[in-house]
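Supplementary notes for students who missed Thursday's class. We covered one full example, reproduced here. Read the sequence, then the structure, then the short commentary at the end.
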Amino acid sequence: MTSSTVSGATAGSRSHRSRVIGRLAFLGPGLAYLIVFLLIPLGMVLSYTLFRRGRFGGVVYEATGENFTRLLDPLYLDVVIGSLKLAGLATLIALLVGYPTAYLIAQLPRKWKTIALVAIVLPFWTNFLVRIYAWIVLLSGPGLVNSALVKLGLVDKPLELLYNEGTIVTGLVYSYLPLMVLPLYAAIEKLDPQLREASANLGARPARTFMSVTLPLTLPGIVTGCLFVFVPSFGNFVIPELLGGGRSIMVGNLIRDQFLNARDWPFGATLSLALLAVLIVLLLLQAWSSRRA
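Structure (token representation):
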């Protein structure tokens, strides 16, 4: 082997090593963050599911499968079913409101599109708790809504608008509606206008064009928007606590109570694992439906 060949191989090895080091320099902070704040806590939570609760709380490191059998208790199944119902209803309402909104925004001139999209995401610039407390001010007994209804003579006394499931759904829709509108807008914006024109030229009415052309082509945006709304709604515990007054318990409230009040960390970890499994299944279904579409 000649000296030029050896020097060339050495230079190539150094170049490859420098590229690897450069990539690690860019990926290192992100990987360290994921390992420290995601993988390690997730591993701890998964390990807690295999142990039992101590007499005074915490974790006793004795293997047991009791935590998984408790998931089938009717008491906890009712909480899960109730959470699915509220999250599903909020997702449906967000879809019914968000689709026409996204469709109208997509038809606006470019200047007004930007203004409308900024208006959609504007609530995210305000603290989440501040927005929820604003709903409490609006819907409370002496709040603006009840005061207006009484002054207009529509009701004789203030209505009980707070601390019920309807208020929880309203709060969920308000909080996550932008997450429905934005993917729907992106899907509608990518539609080729000539497809709708061709449908109209073939004699299809607007409703038929929508059902046969627009709706199928925007199905990936619908699935993504529904996932973006359903997932945080299903695990939310702040809105049921503040707007529901703690009367309607969702999965997020149950998990929080197991860790902070009951101090049953193993069962709380098991509930968290079950919630994570549900979310993974939903993500897989979303990916499958997007590929099919």
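Commentary. Residues 3-48 form the longest helix (46 residues). The mean pLDDT is 87. If anything here is unclear, bring it to office hours.
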